[in-house]
Design goal:
By secondary structure, the chain is an all-alpha fold. The protein contains four helices and no strands.
């Protein structure tokens, strides 16, 4: 359940932001990458500072942040590529 929340919530939020902004395709993917990287730090902040859990300093935290970013970016990119065109096109 925690994994679904940690990966699912950032994916949903990022896709909602990108779909709402209705950017060009290249800009949308760059936004997904930026927000995907930012989501790892937000999740780390929430678990460590807000919930006061999992705050142990560890060398593997960097690896976890990297893989979390990679998973979020990959899932968002795949879902964005499959999304219907009406959500992605810029209004004219």
């Amino acid at each position: 359940m925690q994994t679904a929340f940690v990966l699912g919530f950032p994916v949903i939020v990022i896709l909602l932001i990108v779909a709402r902004l209705k950017l060009k395709p290249l800009t949308s993917y760059m936004t997904i990458v930026g927000l995907g990287i930012l989501s790892s730090f937000i999740v780390e902040f929430v678990f460590c500072s807000v919930l006061k859990t999992q705050c142990e300093p560890d060398a593997l935290n960097v690896v976890g942040i990297f893989f979390h970013s990679f998973y979020v970016i990959a899932i968002c990119s795949i879902i964005y590529a499959v999304m219907p065109r009406k959500f992605k096109q810029k209004l004219r």
